[in-house]
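We read letters as residues; the fold follows as tokens. A sample entry reads:
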Amino acid sequence: QMMKHAWDNYKRYAWGLNELKPISKQGHSSNLFGNIQGATIVDALDTLYIMEMKEEFKEAKEWVEKHLDFNVNAEISVFEVNIRFVGGLLSAYYLSGEEVFRKKAVELGEKLLPAFNTPTGIPWALLNIKSGIGRNWPWASGGSSILAEFGTLHLEFVHLSHLSGNPVFAEKVMNIRKVLNQLDKPEGLYPNYLNPSSGQWGQHHVSIGGLGDSFYEYLLKAWLMSDKTDEEGKKMYYDAVQAIETHLIRKSSGGLTYIAEWKGGLLEHKMGHLTCFAGGMFALGADGAPNDKTGHHIELGAEIARTCHESYDRTSMKLGPEAFRFDGGVEAIATRQNEKYYILRPEVIETYMYMWRFTHDPKYRQWGWEAVEALEKHCRVDGGYSGLRDVYNNHESHDDVQQSFFLSETLKYLYLLFSEDDLLPFEHWVFNTEAHPLPVLHKDNGNKEEKQK
């Protein structure tokens, strides 16, 4: 019902545009996608399919066939377009077998290739997909590319090579690892900034939240997606987790485990909502953990889940802030006005879903249901779902954006949390960072798998 409310209103007021403004009942355009349109449609395709919303899926597919156009003169975020558009199209293809999705995914992948034309092959953050000219965000440390952005292409690009028969996509992302492996890591940690010209780190900031997050997720998932043959990805992941445990994971005086941020050797005792995905990541990686650490990784996942639940529980609206702190006597609470907002983000629910699948402890469904009730009470409006400006306030101040990832991630993870484990089972599917399921590439039957689908 939530998906239907979000989708029907998008269709009614913003059809074909990127996102919906549910209060003003009109389209919302984000500069992340340049002039490419239809982000909500492409992001929602697999959710519609999984929820068996067949009519809606059909109209979405027809829009993609007729109107999804990449021949635009505009600068896009390589990362956002990859995880939402390429990921969404790949997933829709693997679930439905409809050729149009494969064709569009490969076409878009080809348009992203010029982003890798840098001295090191570390891609630019921004690319004009008509001219092929790339650049980095002006605010990023000395012209650097961002770890989470260039580190979150691997899954999609490996599948692009798999589906197109063109090895260039996989080669581009394997080269990124080669560059990273040759660099010295401060304390075994990966800074968030890397200069694509010099191949050297920018500022020594480290985060498992924004700017870093999905890089670590993709190391683990690359190994899982390769049917556990990608030993390099596996080693990089477990080595990174070891360094994260040593240098970033701390316990508050109230007993809450959190992941701090590292700035040139100094810890900032702050955790972002984005960082809350890590609970699910630790659980997902528990099984392959070295030296009998499986139980320890599950425990770590459970502790992060609990901390993130506390960040929700300690607000008036029972929805978590963008970032929360552990200093000056506060725990799991946002202390700055510009960190008190909630934009329909999925990470906490994502962790509940993974923890539920691995432990079947009923509290994760309980916590997920609390989030559903809070979303219905505070974010649902006549025209869809809106983010909130301050989760500590007793009166809603809506931000008037229904993010495409609400349909792609938040609602999908909730649906999976309350579904049986055999819906998209983890031994066959790996979720990209936008919750788009991609099949594990089994060594024995590279092509048989997708034909059976």
